[in-house]
Amino acid sequence: MNFCFVYDGSFEGFLTAVFEAYRLKLPVRSFAAAARYSPNLFEEHYSIETSSEAADRVWKRIAEQGGEFIGKMIFASFLSELPDVERLIWEYLQKLFSEDGKTFALNPISAEAMPLIRITNSVRRERDRLHGFLRFQKLEEELFFAGIEPESHIIPLITPHFVRRFPQFSWIIWDINRKKGVFFDRKTVEEITIDRFHLPRFEDDFCKMWKSYHQSACIQERKNPLLQRQMLPRRYWAQLPEKN
């Protein structure tokens, strides 16, 4: 009988599940976040309690075998939240943790590495886009807010950029679909989750500025809607004041 390892949905929880899979030596069929898990008649499930110690041991092993690049690839792939991405990472880790794992880590075209590299590149493209597409609006005297609707759970990857860029302000970046975000108070970053959150809708001076800039930079005779959608996909438009 194969097992599905059910964890809390966090990266630390997934690494704990990997640790438990090795410790218990159970045949793994899949991994699933508890919020998305649906029981299957053809598999047993094993619930995992997240352990920072176990997760740290797996993370250190990844660093030893693959280095910083492999660690970032695995983390970015996990944040994609694509169906079955945990299984792809598991299959890669099994090879990485083998006796010739360090040699395996140097091969970017292996059957296990290629899908993770493609996923990582997609996640990083979205990260880079949101570095430019994210728009803050002023909620009150010292607090700014930005709502986003990314395909991937991208907030952990974009937060350091905005901490460096706006260290003098307090701000919130909120993932509208996942109902979670981060709050920066000029010193530290704190993860926040609010189930009943109403997205503020108003037009402040920053919104007006973006609209004015867009109107002045837009040359009607040179409009290219197809190119615009390629460079600025529609799924980001709802949160751009210049598109509303």
What can you tell me about this protein's structure?
This protein is α/β, with parallel strands linked by helices. The protein has 2 domains: 3-125, no CATH class; 134-243, no CATH class. The chain has 8 helices and 8 strands. The protein has helices at 11-24, 52-79, 85-96, 101-105, 113-133, 155-165, 205-217, 225-231, and strands at residues 3-7, 28-33, 44-47, 137-140, 143-148, 170-175, 180-184, 189-193. The strands form 2 sheets. It has a 5-stranded mixed β-sheet. A 3-stranded parallel β-sheet has the order 2-1-3, covered by helices on one side. The longest helix has 28 residues, at 52-79. The radius of gyration is 21 Å and the shape is elongated. The termini are far apart.
Summary keywords:
244 residues; alpha/beta; 8 helices; 8 strands; elongated
Summarize the structure.
The protein has 244 residues and is α/β, with parallel strands linked by helices. Helices cover 45% and strands 17% of the residues. The model has no long low-confidence stretch (mean pLDDT 87).
Q: What is the strand and helix layout of this fold?
A:
Blueprint (H helix, E strand, L loop, with lengths): L2 E5 L3 H14 L3 E6 L10 E4 L4 H28 L5 H12 L4 H5 L7 H21 L3 E4 L2 E6 L6 H11 L4 E6 L4 E5 L4 E5 L11 H13 L7 H7 L13
Parallel strand pairs: 1-2, 1-3, 5-6
Antiparallel strand pairs: 4-5, 6-7, 7-8
Helix pairs in contact: 1-2, 2-3, 2-5, 5-6
Sheet of most strands: 5 strands, mixed
Unreliable runs, pLDDT <50, ≥5 residues? none
Report the average pLDDT across residues: 87
Number of E strands = 8
- The protein's oligomeric status is single chain
Helix content: 40-55%
Number of helices: 8
Please identify the structural class as seen in this structure: alpha/beta
